[in-house]
Amino acid sequence: MELRATRGMHDLWGETLAQWSAIERKVKSVLESFGYREIRTPAVERIEVFSHTVGEETDIVEKQMYTLMGDVSEKLVLRPEGTASFVRAVVEHQLNASGRAERFYYYIPMFRHERPQKGRLRQFHQFGAEVINDPSPEVDAEIVALLDHLFGSLGVKEYAVRVNSIGCSECRPPFTEYLKTYLQSHAAVLCEECRARLDRSPLRILDCKKEGCRAVAEKSPRILHSLCVACRNHHEGFKKRLALLSVPFEEDPFIVRGLDYYCRTAFEFLSNLLGSQSALVGGGRYDGISERFGGVPFPAVGFGLGMERLMMVLEQKKLLPVVDRSPIYYFAALGEEAFVVLYRVAFELKKRGVGIEMSYDGEKRLKSHLKQADRLGSHFTLICGEEELKRNTAILKDMRQGTQIEIPIQNLDEELLRRAGIAT
Ligand code: HAM
Predict the structure, then answer these.
(1) Helix-strand-coil percent breakdown of the chain, rounded to 5?
(2) How many CB atoms lie within 10 A of CB 247?
(3) Which of 211-220, 238-247, 297-306, 388-397 has the lowest mean pLDDT?
(4) Confidence class for position 288, pLDDT limits 50, 70, 90
(5) Where are the beta strands (DSSP E) in 123-234?
(6) Average pLDDT of 333-353?
(7) Cβ of residue 283 lying under 6 Å from some atom of ligand 1
(8) Residue 237 CA from chain centroid, whole number
(9) How far is Cα 47 from Cα 88, in angstroms, rounded to an integer?
(10) How crowded is the C-beta side of 34, counted as CA atoms within 13 Å?
C-alpha cells in the first residue's frame, strides 16, 4: 500500500520550510513590536466552542469540521479557526480581567474539510491577532494599518483593503428582515445553496460568487444605510483613522464574512494574485461573544492571515527570502587519527553556532570529500590526513578563492571561530 499525505494537507521541508520560517519570524516580530503576545490553544476543542460562536448554520460548522472519537459524553473537533478557541481561553483564564486593552497573537494550523484547490487546503496555517477590551474604532484601524505595514515590509503591494460594517444586534435584525424580503422576491435567480440560506442567513447571500446571486446582490439594500447611530459613528471613526494612518481602502458592502460572531467592522485583504480564493486576510469586530461561554461580555477585534496564501503571493512576486543553508566549513578527515581530532573540534564549534558539515565515512578519499564540500557550498574545507598530522597541522582550503593555508592543530578552535566571525 502506498502511503501518502492526506489530500489537502502538505509536508514541508528543506528550502521551502526555511523560507516559511524566515517569514514566520518576520510576521511575529512585527506583531510583537505592536505589543501582541503569543497564545497557544489546543488543536482539539469541544464542538460547542465553534457551534455557539462561529454559528450552527455556517459552512464551517455545518460541513467542514473534522470530528474525533472521544469520550461519548463530549463531541470533539479539530479547530477550524482560532477566534472561538481564543475566546474560550480568555473566559476560562479571565485574560480580560485587567479591563485594559490586551493584544494576543497565535500561529497555528487549522483544519477545514473543504474541497482542496489552489489556495484552499484542509490543513492550513493562520497567523491570528486579537485585541480584547477596547471597543474603539481606533483599534480596528490600527490592526488594519498593522497588516498594511506588514505587507509593505514584506514588499507585497498587490492587495486591496475592503471594509464594511455589518451593524450590531440592534440594527442588523431589522435590516436582515428587509434584505430577506428583497431576496425572496428574486429567489428564482439565486443558486440552490443561496435559496436554502434565504431564511436562515440571508446576509451570506451577499457574499456568494455565483453570477445570478451576484447580480441580485448588486441591487440589494445596503446595510450601511441601515446602521444605528452608534454603529454609523463607529464606522465613520474607523474610516477616519484609516485615512489618518494613510491606509488606502475601499468600502465594500459585500464583505459580510462567513462566520456569525462579527458585529460592526468587517474587513478583508483581497489579492488578485490568489485566483478564486482571493482573501489573504479576513477579520473584524466580535464584541460580546464571550457571553456565549458564560463569561462577562468584552469588546474584541482581530484578523486571520493565511500563511499558505501569503507564501503564494510572495512566491509569485519573487519576494521569498534567499535562505543560505551552506555551511562555513566542511571537515575532511582522512584516516581514524585525523577523524578523532576533527570530530572533537567540529562538535566544539557547532556548540558555538558555527555551521559545519563532516562526513563520518572513514573510507572517503580527498577527491570525493572536496566534491561533497562543493556540492554543499561550504566556504572552507578543513583537510587533515597522515601527512598533516605529522606536521601537527591541518589545511584550510578557501573553496571560493582556491587558496589554502596551514593551521597548527592546537590553534584550530580559535582560528576557525575567528574566521566564522565569532569572538573567542
Ligand atoms: P477566515 O476568513 O475564515 O477568518 O480565515 C482567515 C484567513 O485564513 C483567510 O483570509 C485565508 O487567508 C485563510 N484561510 C481560510 N481558510 C483557508 C483554507 N481552507 N486554506 C487556506 N487558507 C485558508 C477566520 O478564521 C477568523 N477567525 C479571523 C478572525 C480573527 N476574525 C477575528 N479575529
Answers:
(1) 40, 20, 40
(2) 19
(3) 211-220
(4) confident
(5) 123-132, 160-165
(6) 96
(7) yes
(8) 28
(9) 12
(10) 21
d(CA 91, ligand 1 centre) in Å? 22
Q: Is the pLDDT of residue 331 over 80?
A: yes
Which element (helix H / strand E) includes 21? helix 14-33
| Distance in Å, CA 126 to ligand 1 centroid | 7
Cα–Cα distance measured from residue 146 to residue 288, given in angstroms and rounded to the nearest whole number: 24
232 pLDDT band, cuts 50/70/90, is very high
pLDDT at res. 58: 84
Please tell me if the CB atom of residue 143 comes closer than 6 angstroms to any atom of ligand 1. no
Q: What is the DSSP letter of 117?
A: B
Instruction: Name which residue leads in pLDDT, 64 or 69.
Output: 64
* C-alpha–C-alpha distance, residues 329 and 353, integer Å: 12
Angle at CA of residue 53, ends 195 and 297, nearest 5°: 135
For a pLDDT cut of 90, what percent of the chain falls above it? 85
Helix, strand, or coil here: 300? Answer: strand
* Exposure string over 347-369, b if 16+ CB within 10 A, otherwise e: eebeeeebbbbbbeeeeeeeeeb
Cβ atoms within 10 Å, residue 186: 18
Residue 423 has pLDDT above 90, yes or no: no
Residues 6+ apart with CB under 8 A from 344: none
With a 6 Å cutoff on the Cβ, whether 207 touches ligand 1 is no
Q: Are 62 and 56 in contact (CB under 8 A)?
A: yes
- Going by pLDDT thresholds of 50, 70 and 90, the confidence category of residue 240 is very high
98-157: pLDDT as tens digits: 999 999 999 999 999 999 999 999 999 999 999 999 999 999 999 999 999 999 999 999
What is 54-101 written as a DSSP string?
T-TTSHHHHH-PPEE---TTS-EEE-S-SHHHHHHHHHHHTTTTT-S-
Total length of the chain: 424
- H or E element that contains 359: none
Q: What's the confidence (pLDDT) of residue 363? A: 86
Closest-lying ligand 1 atom to the alpha carbon of residue 119:
21
Bridge partners (DSSP) of residue 263 are 285
Distance between CA 380 and CA 359 in Å, rounded? 15
Q: Is the CB of 130 under 6 A from ligand 1?
A: yes
Ligand 1 centre from 61 Cα, in Å? 14
